[in-house]
Amino acid sequence: MSRFAFISDTRAVLGEVSRWEAIDIARTGAFVGALLLAWISLQPFIDLSNMLLAEVTTGKEASTYVAFGCFALVTFALAMRDGGRGFATLISPGYLALVGWTAATVVMSIEPGTSARRFVLSLCVAAVAASLLLLPKSENELRRWFAIAILSLLAVCYLGVLLIPNLSVHLATDAQEPALAGDWRGVFGHKNMAAGMMAMLLFLGIYIIRAGSWLAGGIAVGLTVVFFINTEGKSSLALCVVVLALTSFAASIRSLWGRAIVLLAPLVMLNMIGIGSVMSDHLAAISKALPVDATFTGRTDIWTFGLEAAQLKLWTGYGFASFWGSSAVRNLPQGMEWAASAAHSHNGYLDITLAMGLPGLALLIAVFVIAPLRNFHTADCQGNSGPLATALLQVWLFGLYLSSMESFFLDRADPMWVTFLTAVFGLHYLARFRLKTQLELRFRSSQAIAAPPMRTSESKEL
Description:
Blueprint: H1 2-19, H2 22-40, H3 53-57, H4 62-88, H5 93-107, H6 112-132, H7 139-163, H8 165-168, H9 191-210, H10 214-231, H11 234-250, H12 256-273, H13 281-289, H14 300-312, H15 348-381, H16 387-402, H17 415-432, E1 433-435, E2 443-445
Antiparallel strand pairs: 1-2
Helix pairs in contact: 2-4, 2-7, 2-17, 4-6, 5-6, 5-15, 6-17, 7-9, 7-10, 9-10, 9-11, 9-16, 9-17, 11-12, 11-16, 14-15, 15-16, 15-17, 16-17
């Protein structure tokens, strides 16, 4: 049976290749290339022996800006051929307000030049992420393209561990955090990023299996799990298990409020026992009483520093992506010198507040926390759920949870941010356009139930 399925899959691929036109090759290359650019980057296998962590995660070079700018143009142009109606739905109050306020914080930034450059790259990345799921013409294409991208990334990571372990495994000679020696990181700059990405790849690998490519998906899942375990990313591994359990349970709940409680209550609790422990003595006592380290390896100092800094510019922030490494964290008092080399606060919600103030945090919650859950619920009620919707929900939820201890929201070309943003846009489309059966992924507008104000009610193909 397995041999027959493999031969059948191979013949299907070869048959499609023989019928491909130039535009089909361009669509495939754009999808896979954009994901690999985001996941592997143009600077993989960074030498950590004489490098600070801040240098690993910040300061992308001009080549990255050019690459994402080109991919933004190509993916947008290709997706516009059939997905113009999908793009039109993105012109909504939530997205417009977020982009508008972000642009305002660029103008008000303590380092406008830095904020402006990073804002441009962020827009290019957003354009790519918004285009990706509008490129495939069928679900066969989508799962195969995901499989190609995932297996390519895993191949590069494993080759790195085998051939250049000094650049793909943490060493005792690393300039910072030598205690991580032996933990795998692959193409990524840190094992925490590698672990987070492996969790997201695991959700997508499960989708590939459930969508029909059990062989490619099984290989992807197996390789991902092995790499995941070797990163020693305990927090990501625990969150991954929690996400799988909660999303399975949420599928049996029919009310939006019920799903919100099940899926978002843990997010509130994570922040209360984490960053909340430095804001309240009562929460600190609860956090200390827990059998696990709720500060996620002693991050209370950086949370305290970040909260104190945020209070000074609570309504405007310091400017988009311009706090860490800027003049705001220089001339530090004795004992706080470590803050000058910090790349982020290890909490995405705090970093957004530092950059864009409370209005930015409120918009982030509205657009990236509340709206995607409503979109999944709407898609499910319209009969548009399934393996794809579930995988996108899992990537989104894992990203929300992980942001309680890491920071990648709006972080330009960060691989986890690009994957998270792709999932958010995917849920947005599934709530507004029906996924056709018979393996065709052309989105059609759904008329099944009343929809949010942004949703179109037309029934034409995109």
